[in-house]
Amino acid sequence: MGTPLFIVDAFAARRYAGNQAAVCLLDEPADETWMQEFAAEMDFSETAYVVPSGDAFQLRWFTPTVEVELCGHATLASAHVLWEAGRLRPDQEARFDTIHSGRLVCKRNGDWIEMDFPADPPTACDPPASLAEALGAKPVAFAKGRYDFVAELESEKEVRGLAPDFRELATLPVRGMIATARGDGDGDYDFVSRFFGPGSGIDEDPATGSAHCVLAPYWSGRLGKEAMSGFQASERGGTVRVRLDGDRVILGGQAHTTVRGELE
Q: Does residue 46 carry a catalytic annotation?
């Protein structure tokens, strides 16, 4: 019997939208070199490795080039797979123990999955001198979270129309760049965003849960709301519900399995 492998569209209202993640259900921890090589073989923004561990599961995430400390969409995909594959009952929480981000807990709420993640309030700072040229736009506000820069732009239209210089963005000393703006009122969302991470092997991520750990406190302060909806305006598009809960953020999304198989 081979190792179960799933491909899941996360933060997706339907199949073939949102962000793709590969999820491997392992019986025991695997060699890191193999995990990185297989993530490169899959070539998705994230491949997740899930291993049973007591009342929880060990969880690690790899891009095609590096291991990351926190990933939202692959956590969502992993929880979805555990329920769908019968590894957890529908009423059970999915508990994940991670190396850098502690325990992450996921719950089902109807057709949605809610994830309890650490909030990452960004701190205002001056943008790097090369930022406007690399991003292709001049921010109206700029900040830095634990992993990423945040550039607020003038309008949703400007965010959607960005065509960054990925080579220049890759030189910035962060995991990635979040470009964001208020929603223009035509959609059912409070803010829009895009995420660029060429330095981590991902030019543009289709839907980024961990970025919303930054965006939730950022936009909560500007909009005066604790519960909001964000739309990641990538080519595939992704919808993320956010709710601040003290120093935590509850991220909500939907997931759809597109492939089930086995690893040789």
A: yes
Residue 183, burial from CB neighbour count under 10 angstroms (0-12, 13-18, 19+)? buried
**Tens of pLDDT along 130-183?**
999 999 999 999 999 999 999 999 999 999 999 999 999 999 999 999 999 999
The token pair that represents 45 in the structure block = 């923004």
Q: Which one is catalytic: 32, 37, 41, 46?
A: 46
13-60 pLDDT per residue, tens: 999 999 999 999 999 999 999 999 999 999 999 999 999 999 999 999
pLDDT for residue 1: 67
Q: Which amino acid is at 212?
A: H
**Helical H runs in 154-249?**
156-160, 166-169, 211-223
Q: What is the mean pLDDT of the chain?
A: 96
Residue 27: exposure state from Cβ atoms within 10 A (0-12, 13-18, ≥19): exposed
| Structural domains of the chain ordered from first start | 3-118+251-263 (3.10.310.10), 123-245 (3.10.310.10)
